[in-house]
Amino acid sequence: MHLFLQKIDFSMEYDMKRIENLNNELISKKIITENESKSIDLNKIYSFLNSDFVKRIKKSKEIKKEKAFCMEMDAKEFYDNVEDETILIQGIIDLYYIDENDNIVLVDYKTDYVKNENELIDKYKVQLKIYKKALEKGLNKKVAQIYIYSLYLNKEISIKL
């Protein structure tokens, strides 16, 4: 599902037929296999693409997907009993956008099967803290909002760090 979301064009409107066409196109281009496509819940994709959350993304001034980063961080932020050491962290930010008020909004897709949003928050808050820091360092501007979009729960989850 994650790979499928990478290929979404937020300038387009998606009905179920267009989602199915994208799925078939990804198979024909060998981006995903037929077997992989069976694990993609197109109804969840449809719900996401027709959500108020995506409507806000579409109103943004700029959308960036799959933004790679590499940065050094103080190891003390992650490990106990560490002196003055730095660690190199690499990652890929699923999506961020600049909203109509020039605020940076960070979005991370999650497909985990969870009982509630707190499971996702607890599991991914360190990752999102790193992503936030990487964006702020790279763009020289504060991240205003952070969201996890849970495809399993069909909802966006605002994260406070």
What is the 3D form? Answer: globular
Q: What is the residue-averaged pLDDT?
A: 94
By CATH, the architecture of the largest domain is named Alpha-Beta Complex
Backbone CA Rg? 17 Å
How many helical stretches? 6
CATH topology of the largest domain: Lambda Exonuclease, Chain A
Give the N-to-C terminal Cα separation. Answer: 27 Å
Q: Fraction of residues in helices?
A: 25-40%
Question: How many structural domains does the protein architecture include?
Answer: 2
- Low-confidence segments, ≥5 residues, pLDDT <50? none
Secondary-structure content class: alpha+beta
* CATH class label of the largest domain: Alpha Beta
Strand content: 25-35%
The largest β sheet comes out as: 5 strands, mixed
Sheet with the most strands: spatial strand order: 1-2-3-4-5
Label this structure with key terms.
single chain; alpha+beta; Lambda Exonuclease, Chain A; 2 domains; five-stranded mixed sheet; 6 helices
Q: Quick summary of this structure?
A:
The chain has helices at 2-6, 16-28, 34-37, 42-49, 52-58, 117-139, and strands at 62-74, 86-98, 104-110, 143-150, 155-159. The chain is built from six helices and five strands, in the order αααααβββαββ. With 161 residues, the chain is α+β, with helices and mostly antiparallel strands.
